[in-house]
Amino acid sequence: MSAGARIAFLTALFTWTAPVQAQATPALSAQTIAAAQEKLQAGSEAVIREGLETLASASGPGAESAATAVVARLRRGLPPQLIEEAIDALVLLHRPSAGPALLELTQHRRTQVRTKAMAALAALEIRSAQSALLYALDDPSGEVRSTAVSALARVGDGRALSALLTAAERGVPGAWQASAQLARPSDVKTFLTRAQNAEVSDLRAALDTLFARTNLPPEVKLRTIAWLRERGSASARTYLLGQLAALPERAQPNLRHALLKAVEELDREHPEFRNASAAVSP
Amino acid sequence: MKRTWPVLFAGCLSACATQSFQPHFTAPSAPTQPVVVSELLAVKARSERPVVVGLTGDPMRLFAWDLQQAKLLWEQPVQALRAPLVAADTVVVQEAGGVVVRELATGAERTRIDDGGALVGADGEGEHVLLTLAYEKRAAPGAVVMLDAGGVRWKQQLNLPVGVAALSGAYVLVPWATQRLSILAAGSGKELSRLHWKSSVIGHALVDREHLYVGQLGLMPLTREMIEQPGLKLSPYAPWKRSLPAQPPLLRDGYTPVPDPDNAQHRLQLSFRIHREGEALRSENDLLLLRFYRLLFALDANADRVAWVRSFDHDLVAAAIQPGSLLIVDARGDLRALDLQGNTRLKQALGRELRVATLRPGAWLPPAAAGDALEVLSGNLNQQLHAAANLEDDRLGFARAYAANQLARSSEPEITAQLITLCSEPQNPEPLRGAACSELRERTTGDAAVLGALRVRASFLEGTAAAPIGPLAQAAAKMQLKQAGPLLVSQMEDPNTPVRDLPAVFTALQALRERSAAPSIERFVRLHHAEPDGSDMLPALRVALETLGALRVPTQRATLLDIANDALSPRATRDAASAALAALDTPVEPPKQAEPEPRAAADEVQSDPRSYALTADVIRKTLTPLRERLGRCLAADPSTPHSGRTSMVIDGAGNVEGVFVMPATLQPCVEPLLRAAKFPSTRLGRQRITHIFHGANAKEPARPKPQAKKP
Q1: How far A97 CA lies from chain B's nearest CA (Å)?
Q2: Rounded to an integer, what distance in angstroms lies between the CA atom of residue A190 and that of residue A196?
Q3: Residues A47, A27: Cα–Cα separation, whole Å
Q4: Which chain A residue is nearest to residue B569, measuring alpha carbons?
């Protein structure tokens, strides 16, 4: 699979939703599933591929037995290409029972297999995958680390924050955003402290995530605005202005007031920011 | 001397039936002559001015420095094409305009030979200077030229190559065609005698103190017996032969011109001086010097042993060996006289940076040392070798590797730790890493260092690099370090461990009879056995299968059978699985002798009240209360495994940061139990520990086998 195709696949995994898939797929007969399961035992890659493709389209009660068959075949070991196709099938079948087999594959020697297994764990929302994903933050492959970060953002919890912040400081893409996603209200102060040395422009996605979260109390967002104000940089001002513009009229007046005040204070202290911003505006 | 020549030559010419020294392949009719032999062997000691002659950097200048008087004699600009030579009271340099002979005292040009010849060698006595020249693309590729105060006295050309010739009294010794030596009359150049040794290479003739020597791969004294019985099989003397970095020759090839001033040969060189006492030959001071840019190795001439090694701030461009003393000159222009222990006893600043230099100390000896050395070579040999191996200079890769090889000869445990570091550092040059890793594989001491290194886990987040797992595994196997087993399993499962190291890990687990590793190895072969032909995992896979068979864990039989019959696996993998099955089924022979007791790790000395790290006992004690519930997890698992294996990351305060359980089906049951555990705080900080727990269905009594390692 090419790098572009892999990225497309991973994107699809992270945005996949089971109900849509279930509605779109007609149910397979028990006989078809049994025939496909039989194909998995063949000594030919092509036949096994056919079986996987058939089983991947199973839905309803047949999906569980299809997943069980795919897991069993995975556990017996497959050539690398077929492992990836089996993972695809498990994601499409969306059965949590695939979790242990996928966890085992996070230890596969091939980077592509590890990457795909982690993305699948996230897509299937296997909560018990957190430890394996945290281990993967130390993986020698940047692609695996990056996938682990994205997966943690989906299935991790606050316990992953410390490692994610370290990953962010070491430049793993998406780690600031994943940290912002998982930070509990009491963690946000730590998040902001650790982000002190990062450019606000590099934190844009993470800050967007923080502001978009509905499970964070307003005080936390106000503290974030104060933190941006203290940065005293042109990029902080730009970000605050962007948030202000994105905030719906009459929504969260406290937040709007804090954003306005922060921008005004910055403009007073650093009029050059406003001038610079005006100079680049059309 | 000049006045004695006519008398000698008259005698020789009449008595020796001399043939002209024209190249031919038939031996002269009368090769030996008592008169010639007697006079030739009565070598007189030379009286030579002790000097350093050298070429400076840009702009290039030729200079001469008197060692005795510690003063500059002269300096003048030149366009030298080759390094300078010193012969009698002259300096001989190949320049753009030919081979120029200058007065040693003044630098004034005495003679110039511009016939296209390249300077091969120079020797001289008094006012006579003997040059050996080589010519490219000529029918006569070699020539010997005798000069006196008036210019060229005679010139003899050969249609075969000529080696470095020597002048001794009334005779000239000319090596030629690699196995021949002609004795010429110094006054006329006529050939008086010719010797042919089929058993030795002759590229150099030289006079040292009161002896004549010839040779190339070593030196042999010219004796009456040699001249009179040329058929004798003779072996030249050479210091102990050994493998050395860059493998410099004992003597420069006597048939090739002197290298150009910037040639690396001047900085990668062996120096030795032969010493004759009666019939006995040895190396002066029993030492051999190896210069490797800015490293100087003093080698025992009689054994493959380094006496000492010393590094300098600048490359060494010349060396000479005197009785009881060693002279070296560096590129900065510092001349040092070292004692035989490597300490500096005398230092003279020549006041100019050098490309190359030639030391001709003659009989001069540095003034006897009074008081302390000017520069002391500190540390014992191991410390010196360790320092040399760690010198950060990319040009020194092979010399640093040599230092590592020599260091490994010590069985001191701390050397193992040093080799681990040298083998691990990715920025170390490949020759050094290769040497250190090879030596590490063979270590039999330093078990604590090996275990410590195996505990280190490569971590992107913490910026720690992968330890050299392959060599460490082999060392652990050699030391029969049973404690290394679980650590090796952890490293095997870590994707940071390169695939190329896995065969060594499996082999070590086999050698350690680490049966608890079988489930992990089984998982590895199960996941990877269908790797296609050409995959870099196949060697590891083959050894993993062999190990599974050798460990004789019956529960692995099904997997091996499955692989042996799997049409998707390459033929070689299936065959390996079949062989493993056969090994598994072979009855065990009773051991012929008692097995060596696994060695315990060295006790750790601690001063802080906190433990340095989580030890096996501490882990066991912490997890003992959970044993029963962990066993219940095993019993409840559909595959009812006999044991489970967990890796945990514990922070410095003893909190569980992460839990990873194998088989993975146990994760939901085991993780909550282990997360609640609280370990003692440690000085080491974040650690990864491995713990194996057994269920009631285990064949052996449930017995935790915890191991701790630094993440």
Answers
A1: 9
A2: 10
A3: 21
A4: A79
Q: Give me the sheet containing B166-168, strands edge to edge.
A: B166-168, B171-176, B180-185, B191-196
* Interchain proximity A137–B460, CB inside 8 Å: yes
* pLDDT over threshold 80, residue A145: yes
DSSP-assigned letter for residue B140: S
What does chain B come to in residues? 711
From the list A128, A141, A166, the residue facing B668 with the nearest CB is: A128
B566/A140 Cβ within 8 A:
no
Asked if the Cβ–Cβ distance from A109 to B495 is below 8 Å, we say yes
Instruction: Grade residue B22 by pLDDT with cuts at 50, 70 and 90.
Output: low
Please indicate whether, in this complex, the C-beta atoms of A103 and B493 are within 8 angstroms of each other. Answer: no
Flag whether residue B657 sits within 8 Å of chain A, measured between CB atoms: yes
Looking at residue B225, its pLDDT comes to 85
Torsion of CA B346, B351, B357, B358, to 10 degrees: -50
Residues in chain A with CB shorter than 8 Å from the CB of B529 are 77
For B140-177, what is each residue's pLDDT tens digit? 899 999 999 889 999 999 999 999 999 999 999 999 99
What DSSP string describes B68-86? TTTEEEEEEE--BSS--EE
> What is the three-class DSSP state of B306?
strand
3 state DSSP class of B223? coil
pLDDT at A98 over 70: yes
Quick check: B528 and A108 CB within 8 A?
yes
CA–CA separation, B191 vs B434, rounded Å?
54
Query: Residue B464's closest chain A neighbor by CA?
Result: A138
CA-based nearest residue in chain B for residue A105: B527
Measured CA to CA, the distance from residue B267 to residue B277 in angstroms comes to 31
> Taking the complete model, does pTM exceed 0.95, yes or no?
no
> Tokens 């040999």 identify what position?
B381
Question: DSSP of B540-598, one letter per residue?
Answer: HHHHHHHHHHHHT-GGGHHHHHHHHT-TTS-HHHHHHHHHHHHHHHSPPPPPSSPPPPP
Question: From A114, which residue of chain B is nearest by alpha-carbon distance?
Answer: B495
**Cross-chain Cβ contact B657/A159 below 8 Å:** yes
Longest dimension (CA), chain A: 75
Closest alpha carbon to B320 in B53, B35, B553, B113: B53
- Measure B504 CA to nearest chain A CA, in Å: 16
Q: Which two tokens stand for residue B318?
A: 């010349």
Question: How far does Cα B295 stand from its chain's mean position?
Answer: 12
H-run or E-run covering A227? helix A218-231
